[in-house]
Each structure stands twice: as C-alpha cells, then as structure tokens.
Amino acid sequence: MPLYAIGDLHLSLRTNKPMDVFGGGWENYIKKIQEGFSALNPDDICVICGDISWAMSLEESLEDFLFIENLPGKKYVLKGNHDYWWSTVTKMMSFFEKYDIKSIEILHNNCFYYENTAICGTRGWMVEDASDPVQNQKIIEREASRLRTSLQAAEQSCEKLCFFHYPPRYQNVVCNEFVSIMDEYSVKRCWYGHIHSQGHKNAILGEVDGITYEMVSADFIDFTPINIICN
Length: 231
Known about the structure:
Blueprint: E1 3-6, H1 29-37, E2 45-49, H2 62-69, E3 74-78, H3 89-98, E4 104-106, E5 112-114, E6 117-122, H4 133-152, E7 159-164, E8 169-170, E9 173-174, H5 176-184, E10 189-192, E11 206-208, E12 211-215, E13 226-229
Parallel strand pairs: 1-2, 2-3, 3-4, 6-7, 7-10, 10-12
Antiparallel strand pairs: 1-13, 5-6, 8-9, 11-12
C-alpha cells in the first residue's frame, strides 16, 4: 500500500476552463492524469495538494470529483488557491455522500494515518500582494494555525509528513511561520504544488535546514503521482 502525492489537477470537466490552452505539458492533460494514476492500486493512498477543480461551487464540481472517484486509490485532498468550490468540511463530506463518492476525504484541520506516519497539512500562503501586508499576515497566521491544528491531531510518536498547496519556500522567500511550526513538530519531509511552467526553475527542492522539500505540481511530475513511501 504505497503513499503517493500530486498537486494541481486543474480539472474542468463541467466548466469551460481547460488547461490545454497553456500548451506544452498541459496538452491532453486529462488523459495524462488517467494514465498517471493507472499505476496505483485500489488500496493505495494519494494526497492531492490543491487546485483540484476550476468549478465555482460543489454542484459544478461534481463531474470533476466523479472523475477523481474513478481513479484508483484513496485520495486525501487539501485546498488550493483556485478551489473556489471549497466549503465547510461538513458540507463537502455530505456532498460526497450524496453522490456516493467514497474514495475522497478532506485534509483540513486534521490528519490521517499511514501506518506509523501522520499525513498533515494545509493550503499555506505566498505573499502575492505586497500592497496589503496586513491582510497577507492575517492569512498567514490563519494558515499557520491550521497547520498547527493538523500536526497537533497526530500522535506524538508518529513521524509527521507535511503537505501544502503553496510552497513554504520559493526563490529567496521563506514563510517562517510555517517552517518554524514544522521545526517545532520535528517535520523532516514536505511536499507542495502551485508552481507551474517557468516557475519550476525557482522551486526549492531537496534539504534545507533539516527539512526536505519536494514539488508535486502535476505538470512538473508529468501528471503521474510520485511514490513517497512504498510498503
């Protein structure tokens, strides 16, 4: 039962916003996702690191989630910056139950277990609007609180793995709030998405100050979930 990760599926099966228009690696990306997931078995687990669907509401996202439901494996999903369909956990789980979607669960203010490891995480944030530093700091503090809640939900003795949508480090920018919390809970491995195309060259990969970072944006890993732990 291996553990996998991928980010940024950017599904648009009911809305008219496909990613093929960006060309390059995004051409025929729906087929590539299907082929990439074909390596998974029904009892494998995959963390999807945000930007799942372009839909603006849960009902509009239905075809996208049915597509994910039909991919092999159990999926834990967290929020991305384009997941406008995102609602309360209660409403999302009720939506999944209504449409008999059984392979998807929400990673938000909680954690899941994979044998002796805990799967933790949150959306995160990048300072994208320097004109409003006060609002940016509020968002960072809120996301830091969610990360702490997720890590606190894990048993103390477990190894803790962290998943974000936004990278905690990018180019020369470090979100110290997230990094310090990961240090506090002895997190050694971290995965993130969000970065595409030419931005790939600026991604932080490998070990920095005791934490190993890995980017799983779908177009960076050829739309194939990467194997994090293989048992």
